[in-house]
Design brief:
By secondary structure, this protein is mainly beta. It has three helices and 22 strands. A hairpin with a 2-residue loop joins strand 2 and strand 3. It binds beta-D-mannopyranose. Beta-D-mannopyranose binds next to strand 7.
Length: about 325
Amino acid sequence: MAKIIGKPLPNIPWEDKPAGYNAPVWRYSKNPIIGRHAIPTSNSVFNSAVVPFGNGFAGVFRCDSRALEMNIYAGFSDDGINWTIEHEPIVFEGDPYVTRCEYRYDPRVCEIDGRYYITWCNGYHGPTIGVGYTDDFKTFYQLENAFLPYNRNGVLFPRKINGKYAMLSRPSDTGHTAFGDIFYSESPDMIYWGRHRFVMGRRGGWQSLKIGAGPVPIETDEGWLLIYHGVILTCNGYVYRVGCALLDLDEPWKVKMRSKHYILGPEEIYELAGDVPNVTFPCAALADADTGRIAIYYGCADSVTGIAFTTVDELIEHMKKYPM
Ligand code: BMA
């Protein structure tokens, strides 16, 4: 039995696995939890990130407006399921050369030592990784972009590793990149990133075109549990599914285990149909160290947001049963 290294989260959203269900991840019975029109101007609310905050939860949400401008918005919830999202996008304080906004999408939120760091795909002469932080989800500060364009899916680790901040990312190109592998970088100060290491790349089947880190990795006594997305190109376009891997605790560029079979993919109508059909895209996971429970937040068909449940043991068993 693997043990989550972290805080207890007794109020984690949760439903037991339905009887007779034979997959390692199961959907919330009332999905989607956030609809397209959660705020007055939104066309879609998806690929979003949440964390425990105060007695409840806070998050950063990707809302595409009805002008189809992509931006990120703060939100709050008592139970992790019912969310109130601000009607105006986050405004970052910082160097105007960096805070100017072309577009922002696919946020992740990572608590490190009581401060909430946000990473997102930031338009800066092409997509790269924006980095900011907040202490209260009211005032936000933006730091330097982590990398030169082009890059996507920048995901921080929730503590320093070997004395350095650590980030996974996926170098890419300007458009709907038809390639992509996951790399590791470290930083002494959240500004300068280097010592880049290859972590893992495309493989067959559902993850044959590109892969990208999803939620902030979950620390366990067996390694970092990474949930990621993988893409296959079919005759009808890209299909986004979800898999998992276990990375070495001290040298996270070393992959200890990786699932050959996906753990979640588009099957329900809200995952199959929407602005971009056939997309399940995870950006956050809550974890309860006492029970091993995990709640994954994922974008569905680039339109709405869902939750799915699993446990650390379910995912590790799955990797052992269907190894790469
Ligand atoms: C990726 C990103 C995601 C999106 C996915 C499917 O390139 O843009 O935000 O969910 O494509 O359209």
